[in-house]
Fold:
Amino acid sequence: MQPFSDFINELTSDFTPIIGGEYKQDDFAYIDLSENNRDLLKLEVASSEAFSIFISEYLKNRKSTVAFGGYNELRTLYNRSQLFNNTEVNRNIHIGLDIWVPAFSGIIGPLDGTIHSFKDNDNFGDYGPTIILEHVLNGRKFHTLYGHLSRKSLDNLKIGDKVKAGDKIAELGDFDENGDYAPHLHFQVMEKMQGKIGDYPGVVKKEDLDMYLKNCPDPNLLLKI
Structure:
Protein backbone atom coordinates (compact mmCIF):
# COMPACT_ATOMS: atom_id res chain seq x y z
CA MET A 1 0.00 0.00 0.00
CA GLN A 2 1.12 3.55 -0.73
CA PRO A 3 2.72 5.27 2.30
CA PHE A 4 0.16 7.40 4.11
CA SER A 5 2.28 10.54 3.74
CA ASP A 6 2.41 10.14 -0.04
CA PHE A 7 -1.35 9.57 -0.14
CA ILE A 8 -1.99 12.80 1.81
CA ASN A 9 0.38 14.76 -0.40
CA GLU A 10 -1.46 13.66 -3.54
CA LEU A 11 -4.89 14.78 -2.30
CA THR A 12 -4.17 18.43 -3.11
CA SER A 13 -2.18 20.09 -5.87
CA ASP A 14 -1.61 23.56 -4.40
CA PHE A 15 -2.34 25.87 -1.45
CA THR A 16 -5.49 24.65 0.33
CA PRO A 17 -7.16 27.16 2.71
CA ILE A 18 -8.13 26.13 6.22
CA ILE A 19 -8.62 29.63 7.70
CA GLY A 20 -11.67 31.59 6.57
CA GLY A 21 -11.40 35.05 5.08
CA GLU A 22 -9.19 36.46 2.36
CA TYR A 23 -5.87 34.97 3.46
CA LYS A 24 -3.52 34.09 0.62
CA GLN A 25 -0.45 31.88 0.63
CA ASP A 26 1.79 34.96 0.71
CA ASP A 27 0.20 36.06 3.99
CA PHE A 28 1.76 33.11 5.87
CA ALA A 29 5.12 33.31 7.64
CA TYR A 30 6.90 30.28 9.09
CA ILE A 31 7.74 30.52 12.80
CA ASP A 32 10.13 28.33 14.80
CA LEU A 33 8.88 27.68 18.34
CA SER A 34 11.42 24.99 19.13
CA GLU A 35 14.06 25.07 21.83
CA ASN A 36 16.39 26.53 19.18
CA ASN A 37 14.52 29.85 19.08
CA ARG A 38 16.54 32.09 21.39
CA ASP A 39 13.86 34.79 21.36
CA LEU A 40 11.63 32.45 23.37
CA LEU A 41 14.13 32.54 26.22
CA LYS A 42 13.21 36.20 26.74
CA LEU A 43 9.49 35.45 26.80
CA GLU A 44 7.26 34.60 29.75
CA VAL A 45 5.75 31.59 27.99
CA ALA A 46 3.37 30.94 30.88
CA SER A 47 1.48 34.09 29.81
CA SER A 48 -0.89 33.60 26.89
CA GLU A 49 -1.13 37.39 26.59
CA ALA A 50 2.65 37.77 26.30
CA PHE A 51 2.75 35.01 23.72
CA SER A 52 0.04 36.75 21.67
CA ILE A 53 2.12 39.92 21.63
CA PHE A 54 5.19 37.91 20.61
CA ILE A 55 3.31 36.39 17.65
CA SER A 56 1.88 39.78 16.60
CA GLU A 57 5.30 41.43 16.65
CA TYR A 58 6.81 38.54 14.73
CA LEU A 59 4.21 38.92 11.98
CA LYS A 60 4.47 42.71 11.92
CA ASN A 61 8.23 42.51 11.41
CA ARG A 62 7.69 40.17 8.44
CA LYS A 63 4.76 42.08 6.96
CA SER A 64 2.64 38.93 7.28
CA THR A 65 -0.72 38.20 8.90
CA VAL A 66 -0.57 34.45 9.67
CA ALA A 67 2.16 32.46 11.42
CA PHE A 68 2.47 28.71 10.95
CA GLY A 69 4.76 25.83 11.85
CA GLY A 70 5.47 23.30 14.54
CA TYR A 71 5.43 19.85 12.96
CA ASN A 72 7.91 17.45 14.60
CA GLU A 73 9.18 20.33 16.71
CA LEU A 74 10.77 19.90 20.14
CA ARG A 75 9.26 22.58 22.36
CA THR A 76 10.22 23.57 25.89
CA LEU A 77 7.14 25.80 26.25
CA TYR A 78 5.11 22.77 27.35
CA ASN A 79 7.03 22.74 30.63
CA ARG A 80 4.38 25.10 32.02
CA SER A 81 1.69 22.40 32.01
CA GLN A 82 1.48 19.28 34.17
CA LEU A 83 -0.49 17.72 31.32
CA PHE A 84 2.77 17.28 29.40
CA ASN A 85 5.46 17.51 32.05
CA ASN A 86 5.25 15.36 35.18
CA THR A 87 7.01 12.45 36.82
CA GLU A 88 5.30 9.86 34.62
CA VAL A 89 5.11 11.61 31.26
CA ASN A 90 7.40 14.12 29.54
CA ARG A 91 5.80 14.97 26.22
CA ASN A 92 7.40 17.84 24.33
CA ILE A 93 7.49 16.98 20.60
CA HIS A 94 4.68 18.65 18.67
CA ILE A 95 3.24 16.58 15.80
CA GLY A 96 0.54 18.89 14.45
CA LEU A 97 0.66 22.12 12.48
CA ASP A 98 -0.11 25.34 14.37
CA ILE A 99 -1.65 28.29 12.52
CA TRP A 100 -1.71 31.55 14.48
CA VAL A 101 -4.57 33.91 13.61
CA PRO A 102 -6.92 36.06 15.74
CA ALA A 103 -9.51 34.53 18.05
CA PHE A 104 -12.88 33.79 16.44
CA SER A 105 -11.38 33.42 12.97
CA GLY A 106 -13.39 30.95 10.92
CA ILE A 107 -12.02 27.44 10.36
CA ILE A 108 -12.96 25.71 7.13
CA GLY A 109 -12.78 22.05 6.20
CA PRO A 110 -10.11 21.42 3.56
CA LEU A 111 -11.72 18.13 2.42
CA ASP A 112 -15.09 16.42 2.24
CA GLY A 113 -15.79 14.38 5.36
CA THR A 114 -18.09 13.66 8.29
CA ILE A 115 -18.02 14.51 11.99
CA HIS A 116 -16.13 11.66 13.69
CA SER A 117 -16.22 13.08 17.23
CA PHE A 118 -15.90 16.26 19.29
CA LYS A 119 -15.04 17.15 22.88
CA ASP A 120 -14.05 20.01 25.15
CA ASN A 121 -10.61 18.90 26.36
CA ASP A 122 -10.61 21.51 29.11
CA ASN A 123 -7.41 20.74 31.04
CA PHE A 124 -4.93 23.60 31.38
CA GLY A 125 -2.64 23.44 28.34
CA ASP A 126 -4.91 21.01 26.47
CA TYR A 127 -6.79 21.47 23.17
CA GLY A 128 -9.92 22.99 24.64
CA PRO A 129 -12.85 22.44 22.26
CA THR A 130 -11.85 19.98 19.55
CA ILE A 131 -13.47 18.58 16.40
CA ILE A 132 -12.30 15.48 14.54
CA LEU A 133 -13.44 14.75 10.99
CA GLU A 134 -13.38 11.38 9.25
CA HIS A 135 -12.58 11.22 5.55
CA VAL A 136 -12.87 8.41 3.03
CA LEU A 137 -11.16 9.43 -0.19
CA ASN A 138 -9.83 7.25 -2.99
CA GLY A 139 -10.84 4.21 -0.94
CA ARG A 140 -8.78 5.13 2.11
CA LYS A 141 -10.03 6.27 5.52
CA PHE A 142 -8.23 8.85 7.66
CA HIS A 143 -8.97 11.71 10.06
CA THR A 144 -8.22 15.39 10.66
CA LEU A 145 -8.21 17.18 14.03
CA TYR A 146 -9.00 20.84 14.76
CA GLY A 147 -8.03 22.00 18.25
CA HIS A 148 -8.21 25.22 20.33
CA LEU A 149 -11.68 26.14 19.07
CA SER A 150 -14.43 28.19 20.69
CA ARG A 151 -16.96 26.36 22.87
CA LYS A 152 -19.68 27.70 20.61
CA SER A 153 -18.13 25.61 17.81
CA LEU A 154 -19.35 22.42 19.51
CA ASP A 155 -22.98 23.54 19.68
CA ASN A 156 -25.44 21.45 17.64
CA LEU A 157 -22.81 19.09 16.24
CA LYS A 158 -23.82 15.52 15.53
CA ILE A 159 -21.58 12.56 14.83
CA GLY A 160 -21.94 11.60 11.19
CA ASP A 161 -22.91 15.07 9.95
CA LYS A 162 -21.47 15.71 6.50
CA VAL A 163 -18.88 18.41 5.83
CA LYS A 164 -18.01 19.66 2.35
CA ALA A 165 -14.60 21.03 1.44
CA GLY A 166 -14.74 24.79 1.98
CA ASP A 167 -17.50 24.67 4.62
CA LYS A 168 -16.98 26.66 7.81
CA ILE A 169 -16.79 24.04 10.54
CA ALA A 170 -15.73 26.08 13.58
CA GLU A 171 -14.08 29.21 14.86
CA LEU A 172 -11.01 29.70 17.02
CA GLY A 173 -11.34 30.19 20.75
CA ASP A 174 -9.65 32.82 22.89
CA PHE A 175 -7.25 31.97 25.74
CA ASP A 176 -10.05 31.58 28.30
CA GLU A 177 -11.53 28.58 26.46
CA ASN A 178 -8.75 27.16 24.24
CA GLY A 179 -6.52 25.65 26.93
CA ASP A 180 -4.93 29.03 27.82
CA TYR A 181 -2.96 29.66 24.63
CA ALA A 182 -2.54 32.60 22.31
CA PRO A 183 -5.28 32.02 19.69
CA HIS A 184 -4.25 29.46 17.09
CA LEU A 185 -5.47 26.36 15.31
CA HIS A 186 -3.82 23.02 15.99
CA PHE A 187 -4.38 21.00 12.82
CA GLN A 188 -3.38 17.36 12.64
CA VAL A 189 -3.80 14.45 10.22
CA MET A 190 -4.18 10.89 11.57
CA GLU A 191 -4.63 7.68 9.64
CA LYS A 192 -5.86 5.64 12.61
CA MET A 193 -7.62 7.02 15.69
CA GLN A 194 -6.49 4.09 17.87
CA GLY A 195 -9.82 4.08 19.68
CA LYS A 196 -9.71 7.72 20.75
CA ILE A 197 -12.82 9.93 20.67
CA GLY A 198 -12.76 13.72 20.52
CA ASP A 199 -9.05 13.77 21.28
CA TYR A 200 -5.72 12.49 19.96
CA PRO A 201 -2.18 13.27 21.19
CA GLY A 202 -0.66 16.31 19.54
CA VAL A 203 2.45 16.36 21.71
CA VAL A 204 4.35 13.11 22.27
CA LYS A 205 7.37 11.55 23.95
CA LYS A 206 10.60 10.96 22.05
CA GLU A 207 10.27 7.24 22.73
CA ASP A 208 6.94 7.12 20.84
CA LEU A 209 7.84 9.56 18.07
CA ASP A 210 8.43 7.14 15.20
CA MET A 211 5.03 5.52 15.60
CA TYR A 212 3.23 8.86 15.78
CA LEU A 213 5.06 10.36 12.79
CA LYS A 214 4.01 7.37 10.70
CA ASN A 215 0.36 7.71 11.75
CA CYS A 216 0.42 11.54 11.68
CA PRO A 217 2.32 12.87 8.64
CA ASP A 218 3.10 16.57 8.18
CA PRO A 219 -0.27 18.37 7.73
CA ASN A 220 1.42 20.78 5.34
CA LEU A 221 1.59 17.93 2.82
CA LEU A 222 -2.16 18.54 2.56
CA LEU A 223 -2.34 22.33 2.99
CA LYS A 224 0.79 23.19 0.97
CA ILE A 225 1.38 26.52 2.70
Notes: The chain has one domain: 4-218.
